[in-house]
Automatic annotation (TrEMBL):
Tree of life domain: Bacteria
Protein name: Arginine N-succinyltransferase
SUPFAM superfamilies tied to this protein: Acyl-CoA N-acyltransferases (Nat)
Keyword list, A-Z: Acyltransferase, Arginine metabolism, Transferase
Species of origin: Sphingomonas crocodyli
Length: 348
């Protein structure tokens, strides 16, 4: 039934009818998307390590995404795309599990208090400790929307579709989900990197960002500081950057908070961007999801995100649905569905 639905969707796409040309939906990336992905990565600028502006690295990410969609137990992310009017206009990623090939490192922010036995003076300061506390969690990331589309709820569509992917194959994903956000940059460089990681490497932030995007942050963990870092020994600018999100990531923080993510005091080891955490089953999208066969195709219902398919056939779109599993005709046409086909949906 799902295969038949996918064939119907492909028929609509190839035919290029009005509904298909104007459709907005989420789908997995394929090899033919490489050039469009590269253009998006270039427009994203520095610091978005999950979407490096490197063609070979992006090709590897697409290939790895394909393997993950086929059920392989690999590191890396399932790469989803936002398609609008036949053009790739955004990305989002789901890493089924962190720490598959290499340990997954974070800094945990702790608090230190010391008191002098001579004069009673007390000092308090934060300490960064290298930990693997978040290893094995599912991770959502790689959220990037074409700047020309911002303000049209496309970011919400892309972001929340990742939870539909998880809901449709829940057993495959971990009981805890994290979101590792891009850290604060000033004039294109990271104050935290300059003060910490940059002291251990003969490279500037731009070069470190390029390597981090291609190979991941394992090279930082391999050679970076292993002992706790007393933050009061860092420059003020670096201290202020700890746990601060990139200016372009503020909307993402809002979306994540609405979904149920919270800040538990973890930051990225590269740029000190915040890592937010949630119990997977407590995520709003997971808890509000309804699944089953389509009962009817008719107008009306609640504004919803609607998904169908598994693996490479996964598709999602914004439309209308009811708790009784009826969906609107436009969504049915966009996803190539008829009554009886299996879907999952939750309120938009």
């Amino acid at each position: 039934m799902l295969f038949a639905a996918l064939l119907r969707w492909l028929d609509n796409w190839v035919a290029g009818g009005q509904t298909s040309r104007m459709a907005t939906f989420i789908r997995p990336a394929i090899e033919a998307d490489l050039d469009a992905l590269l253009a998006l990565a270039i427009s994203a600028g520095p610091g978005l390590t999950n979407l490096p502006a490197d063609k070979a690295a992006l090709a590897d990410r697409i290939a790895r995404s394909d393997a993950l969609l086929d059920g392989d137990d690999l590191s890396g992310a399932i790469l989803l795309l936002l398609e609008v009017d036949g053009q790739v206009r955004g990305t989002g990623m789901v890493f089924p599990r962190t720490g598959v090939d290499w340990p997954f490192y974070s800094y945990r922010i702790g608090r230190m208090t010391q008191r002098s036995s001579l004069d009673g003076r007390m000092v308090r300061f934060d300490v960064l400790t290298l930990v693997n506390d978040l290893e094995g969690a599912t991770e959502v990331g790689g959220l990037m929307i074409d700047p020309a589309l911002r303000g049209g709820a496309y970011g919400r569509l892309m972001a929340r579709s990742r939870y539909l992917l998880i809901a449709r194959d829940r057993a495959r994903f971990a009981d805890r989900t994290i979101a590792d956000l891009r850290g604060y940059l000033k004039d294109g460089t990271s104050p935290f990197w300059d003060a910490v990681g940059g002291r251990f490497y003969a490279m500037d932030f731009a070069e470190a960002d390029r390597i981090n995007g291609i190979t991941g942050n394992q090279f930082i963990a391999d050679l970076g500081p292993r002992h706790p870092i007393y933050t009061n020994m860092l420059p003020d600018e670096a201290q202020a950057a700890i746990g601060r999100v990139h200016d372009d990531g503020r909307a993402a923080v809002t979306l994540l908070a609405e979904e149920g993510f919270i800040d538990e005091g973890y930051v990225d080891i590269f740029d000190a961007g915040p890592t937010l955490i949630a119990a997977t089953d407590a995520l709003r999208g997971i808890g509000e999801a309804h699944g089953g066969p389509i009962s009817a195709i008719l107008d009306g219902g609640t504004e919803s995100l609607i998904a169908t398919g598994h693996g490479r056939s996964f598709r999602a779109t914004r439309g209308r649905a009811t708790d009784g599993m009826a969906i609107d005709p436009t969504s049915a046409a966009t996803l190539g569905l008829t009554a009886g086909d299996d879907i999952t949906h939750f309120p938009f």
